[in-house]
Amino acid sequence: MRLKACLALLAVLALAPPAAFAKLYVGDAAPDFTLPDSASTMHSLSDFRGQVVAILGWTNG
């Protein structure tokens, strides 16, 4: 399972636009991104503009 997670991360990084790797500083706006939830519904950070957002990540590996 850990191998699958690593391969998925590598795929995301390989497909990410160069702007995704720009340096960010405290106070900068977060770059927009889209990720699926546990029900495979896609959500973009921009959908929550003006709201407090906490992003939690975990692995089962």
Could you characterize the architecture of this molecule?
There is one protein chain. This protein is of the alpha+beta class and 61 residues long. The protein has one domain. The chain is built from one helix and two strands. A two-stranded antiparallel sheet has the order 1-2. The longest helix has 14 residues, at 2-15. The protein is globular. The mean pLDDT is 79.
Main pleated sheet: 2 strands, antiparallel
- The H/E string reads HEE
Query: Structural class given helices, strands, pairing?
Result: alpha+beta
Q: What is the CA-CA span between the terminal residues? A: 6 Å
Overall tally of domains: 1
Shape: globular
Tally the helices. Answer: 1
